[in-house]
Every structure is written in C-alpha cells, then in structure tokens.
C-alpha cells in the first residue's frame, strides 16, 4: 500500500530508536477531540481519504518515492485532522479506566490532603472511599496523596480521618485527559484542546 512508502523527515526523529515523538491530534467528524495518533496512522488516514478537513501548521513532513522525472513526492501532515467517523467517548460520563498520569496532572502534583508537592514517582493514588469498602477506581474517587497522608488516612473516609480534601476530584473530559496525559503537545493542538477541556484549578478549598 502507498502509505507504507512514506519516510519521516520532520522534527522529532530519533535515529537510535527510529521513533517519532510528534503526534497528530485526531478529531471526529463533528470536530470533537478523540485521541493522538502517530504519523503512520495519520498518513494512512490521509492517503485513504478518511480525513475530511484539517487545520494547524504542518507538524510532520514525509517523503515518498521518486517518479520518472526524479521528483520525490511529499506528504505534509497537519497538526490536527478530522476523520469521517464518530466516537462515543464524549458520551461516557464515567470512563472505564482512570489513568495515574492524568490524576497526578489533574491534581497538579499536590497531595489533596496537606497540599504538599509530590514528585510523580513518589505520589500515591488514594481511594477517597476506600476500595475495601466498595470505593470504585474512578476519577471522582481517586486523588493524589503523599505517603504520610495516605498512611494516616488508612482504611477510612476523609471525614472519619478528620482530613479535608483541598479540592473536589472531577472527571476530566476527553479533551482535558489529552492535555493531562503528559504528552508533548504542539501549540496549535493545545489551543484547540483548551477550547473543549473542562480543566479546573486545584488550589482551592471546598
């Protein structure tokens, strides 16, 4: 197939591992952000005419084969592409899985009990309603905690432990989850995502 002939020549090429760190933001037919895709997928969508519109500066340039005149074909991948299908992720009030990185970023790396800044490698995900007591693995029931506060709270609710949450945990919508995923996001993509994201500030009392 034609899309297999493209070779990445833009920024972000890692000659050692042959991986490209630049990702393309994929939208559904209505313009809702769905996911980030790699250049292989983006090229396939473009060459198979699945992209109905695009926007943003060129994020990646690919080179193909040469014709009889020695001219080499080029494929420019825009930062944002909209494809001709719909996704139901925007209809899911409670995502099936809560991601550790997203929770850490949502809570700005702060312990939601004492406000201490916690490095990612040391933070603990606390079940506000303990898991042993039926607390689910959802964004509303998980928060960033330091080890000291997590040990102090033990198998209790915040009220039982006399520990007040600094902010109410919320469910980041799909656009917010993409921002909070920890990926490198280029300017055009970030501007677009911010128009849909339900991000909230953590530093407040409730």
What share of residues is helical? Answer: 10-25%
* Morphology call: elongated
Report the span from N to C terminus.
56 Å
Let me know the average pLDDT. Answer: 86
Low-pLDDT regions: 1-19
Count of helical stretches: 6
User: How many individual β-strands?
Assistant: 9
Strand content: 15-25%
Compute the number of structural domains. 2
Order of strands across the widest beta sheet? 1-6-7-4-5
Category from helices, strands and their pairing = alpha+beta
Question: H/E order of the elements?
Answer: EEEEEHEEHEEHHHH
Rg, rounded, reads 21 Å
What does the main sheet amount to?
5 strands, mixed
Helix and strand arrangement:
Layout: E1 7-8, E2 13-14, E3 19-20, E4 24-27, E5 33-37, H1 39-47, E6 51-66, E7 72-83, H2 100-106, E8 124-127, E9 142-145, H3 147-153, H4 158-161, H5 174-180, H6 187-194
Parallel strand pairs: 4-7
Antiparallel strand pairs: 1-6, 2-3, 4-5, 6-7, 8-9
Describe the structure concisely.
Residues 98-151 form the HNH nuclease domain. This protein has 206 residues and is an alpha+beta fold. The protein folds into two domains: 2-89, no CATH class; 96-161, DNA Binding (I), subunit A (Orthogonal Bundle), CATH 1.10.30.50.
